[in-house]
Amino acid sequence: MTVAVVGAGNFGTVIANIVASNGLKTYLWMRDEDQLADIDTHKENRRYLPGHAIHERVVPTTDIGLALEQCDLVFVTVPSASFRDVATLVGQHIQSGTYAVSATKGVEHNSFKLMSEILAEELPPGVIGVLSGPNLAEEIALGKFAGTVIASPDRQLRLMVQQRLSSSTFRVYSSPDIYGVELGGALKNVYAIICGIATALDVGQNAVSLVITRSLIEMSRFAQAMEGNPYTFLGLAGVGDLVATCTSPHSRNFQLGYQFASGLSLDEAMNKLGKLAEGVNTLKAVYAYKQRMQLYMPLADALYRVLVLGEDLKETIFELMTGEQKDDVDVLGSRLTTEFR
Q1: pLDDT reading at 53 higher than 70
Q2: Distance in angstroms (rounded) separating the CA atoms of residues 242 and 86
Q3: CA-CA distance, 280 to 324, in Å (whole number)?
Q4: What is the mean pLDDT of residues 76-90?
Q5: In angstroms, rounded to a whole number, what is the distance separating the alpha carbons of residues 287 and 249?
Q6: Do residue 28 and residue 55 come from a single domain?
Q7: The total number of structural domains that make up the chain
Q8: Which of 27, 130, 168, 243 sits at a 20 to 30 Å CA gap from 33?
Q9: Which of the residues 105, 113, 188, 275 is marked catalytic?
Q10: For residue 110, what pLDDT is reported?
Q11: pTM for the whole thing?
Q12: 341 occurs within a structural domain
């Protein structure tokens, strides 16, 4: 049995290393021949995960056919902006019935489709899952304790991923709610940018806690509007991922917000980061959807106005702090005051 990881970024490399350490031959596919040559020479992914050796059972390659022709499980880890193009390529080589798991946290900008939906459209009939959680690649590569969630309506896929991706420092939890888990992983990137801004402005821990808590409320409200289960956000792929991404300097989205609040333009911050921050694309898609649905999401609205429309940051913060004060927890509506007393 072999596993393929499509996308040789930092998290894709980490996944490949863990699977290989469990005794399985693992293909790590990338587009760039120069990146492949560098990995072959130095035995590490110096571009995205420097200082961490590539496991001996990992086979780096730019040959998508070689990577996919014999695999029974494939992880797709490319950025959301190129996800459909890569999924189409995967669909041309993957065998029908192969288990396919998205490990990309984002949404397609124009359609607001999640990555699992794109896989379902572009791949031949098979079983699809989603991997999401507080998974900062640098920490996992260092062997620090972490956990993730594999979500799929198919129990066999969940068991397979748990077996192949678990280690003594990495736990894999299971969920049937593929939509809720994936939505949580996408939405939290928006709020990580806000927390990076708050940290750069030195607003204090009280304020950061306020932002994280209200972010979770907005995420849950959004999920409920899309007929998702807001309770999923109480788990590792919701509040767990939100806390990690909103507080860690390893988070690309946190760093983007931090650099922006430190005086860089959005383009300058993205160029300095050198890695794609999924939260920007997700923000644009979320803003368009929330406008259509008339959802109350003041944090996402404020971030869009500042990053995309160029409104003044300090004035926007003042408006947030002096705006309407609503109920603390309101995603369940009247049930809070009737069923849980």
Answers
A1: yes
A2: 27
A3: 26
A4: 95
A5: 25
A6: yes
A7: 2
A8: 130
A9: 188
A10: 80
A11: 0.88
A12: no
Q: What does the pLDDT look like over 263-291, one tens digit per residue?
A: 999 999 988 887 667 889 899 989 998 99
Q: How far is CA 16 from CA 8, 9, 21, 26, in A?
A: 9, 11, 9, 6
148-199 residue pLDDT tens:
999 999 999 999 999 999 999 999 999 999 989 999 999 999 999 999 999 9
Report DSSP letters for 290-307, one per residue.
Answer: HHHHT---HHHHHHHHHH
**3-state SS, residue 280:** helix
- Classified as helix, coil or strand, 172 is strand
The count of residues in the chain is: 341
Residue 181 belongs to some domain of the structure: no
Alpha helices in the chain (DSSP H): 10-21, 33-42, 64-68, 83-91, 115-122, 137-141, 155-165, 178-200, 205-225, 241-247, 252-261, 266-273, 278-293, 298-307, 313-321, 335-338
Q: Are residues 170 and 197 both part of a single domain?
A: no
What is the extent of the structural domain holding 286?
188-332
Which value, in Å, is the radius of gyration of the alpha carbons in the chain?
Answer: 20
For position 325, which CATH number holds?
1.10.1040.10
